[in-house]
Design a protein that fits this description.
This protein has helices at 2-25, 31-60, 67-88, 99-120, 132-155, 190-193, 222-226; strands at residues 93-94, 97-98, 166-167, 198-207, 211-221, 235-240, 245-249, 257-262, 265-266, 276-278, 291-297. It is α+β, with helices and mostly antiparallel strands. Helices cover 42% and strands 18% of the residues. It folds into 2 domains: 2-166, no CATH class; 190-297, Oxidoreductase, molybdopterin-binding domain (Sulfite Oxidase, Chain A, domain 2). Strand 1 (93-94) and strand 2 form a beta hairpin. The longest helix has 30 residues, at 31-60.
């Protein structure tokens, strides 16, 4: 029983981690099914606590050198689940840090701890695990987790976007990882966009730290800025003064806007001014801030990491 509980809990944690990563990456229109699956996986972990607690108690009664690490793993897992539920209840931030941001940080910290725990206390699957009864147990857990998720959303869950983000009136000045607001000449793009037709779009900026805001962004179309792209162009590389960059398929050009205004005012530097990229339908890490250059490229749009490291 303990071995099956541990294996099932490991599977639920891996499902929660995989769907959590995928939820940050997929576009807004396709995110709902992934975020829903992520929530159901989280509730599956909670449901398994009933069977895991006796296993933990027996383990604590044994003197093992890795007991401290196991307790730390459990503590991080509990904190991760707590912050995930808090965000779903509508708790936006703790001080200057979003609750979802803390949840993601805890999930990343938990991954190596779980790997070490599995290495120290291996639970090897057996041929007898692949039985009809075993399948029915897993299916029953999955159905129950989905039912609990549905009940939670119908009663306690806060109103959220399909991505799970909570609404804000204005974009929060955030940066990717260790980026900080650079010193940029406010008139850097003035001459480059002079004479181009102004464009505006009202859309949601959905940040992976757990918030979104719907605002009016104004500037110029990237397609107008570049003009006819050279033959052989497969992507467009948009770079920031911080060294951050994202690569876009040429087919995405009609959607890209270089914004210099937010809700009719000059774009604040904390929000990416004097110019930032606006990409309706994509998560916030695609919206390159403090744009320094936009260049056609012969490289494939997939020639980049799914999540940038700088």
């Amino acid at each position: 029983m303990a071995r099956r509980t541990n294996l099932t809990l490991l599977a639920a944690l891996l499902a929660a981690f995989a769907t959590g990563v995928l939820a940050l990456w997929v576009g807004e229109s396709r995110a709902w099914i992934v975020t829903w699956a992520h929530g159901a996986a989280g509730f599956a972990v909670l449901l398994l606590v009933r069977w895991k607690v006796p296993v933990v108690r027996r383990g604590l009664r044994r003197a093992r050198p890795d007991t401290g690490a196991a307790v730390a793993t459990a503590a991080v897992a509990v904190a991760m689940l707590a912050t995930g539920i808090a965000h779903s209840l509508g708790v936006s931030a703790l001080g200057s840090v979003t609750v979802l941001g803390i949840h993601i940080a805890l999930a990343l910290a938990l991954l190596p701890l779980v790997a070490m725990h599995v290495f120290n206390r291996p639970q090897r699957p057996r041929r007898g695990d692949l039985t009809r009864a075993g399948f029915l147990r897993l299916a029953g857990l999955a159905v129950l987790a989905v039912a609990v998720k549905a009940a939670f959303e119908g009663t306690l869950g806060a109103s959220r976007a399909a991505t799970g983000s909570l609404r804000r009136d204005q974009p929060i000045p955030t940066s990717w990882l260790d980026d900080s607001t650079p010193a940029v000449d406010a008139g850097e793009w003035r001459d480059r966009i002079a004479g181009l037709a102004p464009r505006s779009v009202t859309c949601a900026l959905d940040c992976t730290s757990g918030w979104y805001s719907v605002n009016r962004w104004s500037g110029v179309a990237v397609a107008d800025l570049l003009g006819p792209v050279p033959p052989g162009t497969r992507s467009v590389l948009v770079s920031s003064h911080t060294g951050y960059s994202r690569r876009f398929d040429v087919a995405d050009l009609p959607q890209l806007l270089l914004a210099t205004e937010l809700d009719g005012r000059d774009l604040p530097s904390a929000n990416g001014g004097p110019a930032r990229l606006v990409v309706p339908g994509r998560r916030g890490f695609w919206w390159v801030k403090w744009v320094s250059s936009i260049e056609p490229s012969g490289r494939s749009p997939w020639w980049q990491l799914p999540f940038p490291l700088n």
